[in-house]
Amino acid sequence: MEKKKYIVLLLQIAAVAAAGVIGGDTLFALVTALIGITFNFMVSMNFAPGFLFGFVYAVCNGILAWQTKVYATFVFMIFMQAPMALYSFWKWRGEKKQTETIMRKMNRRELSVTVLGAMVLFGIIAAVLSRVNGTLDINVFFDTFFFVCSAIACIGLAACYKNAYIVNLGSGIGGTILWVFKAVTMGTGISVAVFFLAVAINAAMAIRQQYGRE
Questions:
Q1: Please, which residues bridge with residue 83 across strands?
Q2: Which residue range forms the structural domain that includes residue 73?
Q3: pLDDT at 97
Q4: Other C-beta atoms within 10 Å of 72: how many?
């Protein structure tokens, strides 16, 4: 990556670290967020080794999600993102270290199937979590929204679809709202909230970079 991009990464790491210290996050939550922002930034810049950080982040965030009772996120991180991160590293590295040339847009059929699949998945996850939680509240809504966006983005990046960055923007926004809510109600996770804000920013940068070439 270019030096100026490393500077952006360092600024994001500093912002997440400061938020974690000021917010009184646990050391585990803070370290998870720092690993996560490194993963997200490197992948947004099309740097394949970022997925190795993604694997570690998925395991750590899965543990954190279990501890804070965000069960959909736990399932996603441990059973989808962790293995998909390793697969994505293998595929991206096998194709090209810098993947700009292999990223492509979904055609109309692929986009329609993705949207329909996301709607069905949202309904299923929301129904399951509502039953477990006893009600459909804001926590269930944003937990489900984050899960669906993250799952679609994870699969989309592995398949080298540009559209995945747009979905990742939604994941960043949903994750920010979810973890701000968690920070307010449970007293921890503000660094994770800042992390997801950075995810949204990185996704916006990636969208500009990918679609700006057209």
A1: none
A2: 1-213
A3: 46
A4: 23
CA distances 95 to 32, 55, 174, Å, are 29, 19, 31
Question: Minimal CA–CA distance to 38: which of 22, 26, 54?
Answer: 54
Q: How does pLDDT run across 122-167, given as a tens digit for each residue?
A: 998 888 888 877 777 777 787 788 778 878 888 888 777 888 888 8
Query: Is the distance from CB of 178 to CB of 153 less than 8 angstroms?
Result: no
Report d(CA 22, CA 29) in Å as an integer. 13
Enter the pTM of the model: 0.71
Sign of CA dihedral 42, 2, 212, 10: positive
Give the whole-angstrom CA distance, residue 163 versus residue 157: 8
Structural domain total, the chain:
1
| Cα torsion 168, 138, 35, 21: sign | positive
CA atoms lying within 13 Å on the CB side of residue 3: 0
CA 177, CA 42: separation in Å to the nearest integer? 23
